[in-house]
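ZP: hey, is the zinc ion complex queued? I don't see it on the tracker
AM: it wasn't, my bad. submitting now with these inputs:
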Amino acid sequence: MDNFTFYSPTYFVFGKDTEEKTGECVKRFGGTKVLIHYGGGSVKRSGLLDRVEKSLSDAGIPYVMLGGVKPNPRSSLVYEGIDLCKKEQVDFVLAVGGGSTIDSSKAIAAGVVYDGDFWDFYMGKRIEKALPVGTVLTIAAAGSEGSPDSVITKEEGMFKRGASGDAIRPKFSILNPALTQTLPPYQTAAGITDIMAHLYERYLTNTKDVEVTDRLIEALLLTMRHEAPRVIADPDNYEARANIMWAGMMAHNNSCGVGRSQDWNSHDIEHELSALYDCAHGAGLAVTMPAVFKYVMKHDVMRFAKAAVRIWGCEMDFDHPEVTALEGINAFQAFLVSIGMPKNFAELGAKEEDIPKLVDVLCNGNGRKGTLNGFATLDEKDCTEIYRLML
Ligand code: NZQ
Ligand code: ZN
């Protein structure tokens, strides 16, 4: 196991009706003037926004609002949010929505207290300071409710990049699984896929002897395997949604990733797809992961064989571990298809003729230097082959 530090101070409030505690939570973390940031309207239609506003008003906390965050959140709204917070002297940013809204809120929170352009953070500068952020989560997926990360799409060039720093870890996150019951099935499935990707990207490690985190990841993947079909069959299944929601947080606050190298090549390869085609990040991952896994399998075939046996119940072929490894990858893809996820470029709305452009932005765009360095090192030729495997 590698040396590590782990700092995860988010205060979680989990369960039914917990959004009623929003005002109390903002107070607890010192907010006196709030920006409520939200997306394209689902929180209005569900009545959640009204309940959050009431909770702030009951606690005597003034607020301003900024809606309109799109999935794959854009830089232009971040600039607007930064200006609004400065003008209104906001000292707390409250995200009400999914990963996109939370990420946009984190970007605003970091940008308000920074003299330069907030995009510097998405070019690699670490975020050291930000306004406090709180979240009321409406979809189990990105894990941004417990992560120190934010992913934003820059409109000029339509590429997506991430920024990081403990300063943007949410001070509190309110997780009411019932709020996810209004999700369309496709979004529920995309969220499940993203959660599983966060687990797989940590499972694919080059660090030896990491049994404790291996076993935690396996437990969470097995939970997803159990709960996903239940929630797809019955979207109102609160218990299944509760397990998925907490698994989504645990998958990405890095409790399963400490002390081990991690992959993230699938995420980087997918981010170019959701940036260019505006597809759901989870749907892009459903197409990307099997292609990446098949391509890099030879890098450590036993790791894929272990996943096949422990997660997908495959029988180990000791003479031909590559057969077991491939069986596990195919079982994973079949599972994703069974919950309604796409399996190739066409189903995602991606185009073969865009592959050179995707590869160029992926490997050379915005600070990259020709390779992706995860579980295996991938150059432009490798990435081209991987996109071609998705056709
Ligand atoms: O915008 P509204 O109207 O709210 O609709 C959203 C959106 O259309 C809808 N939705 C959310 N909750 C709902 C609901 N509809 C009905 N009922 C509800 N309860 O779902 C759609 C997707 O929302 P979004 O916030 O985009 O989903 P998600 O949480 O999957 O976030 C995706 C973004 O997170 C980034 C992705 O790249 C993508 O941009 N990621 C962020 C990470 C992080 N910060 O740590 C890590 C992830 O790997 C990921 O890259
Ligand atoms: Zn993700």
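AM: back. The chain has two domains: 11-179, 185-389.
ZP: great, adding it to the tracker
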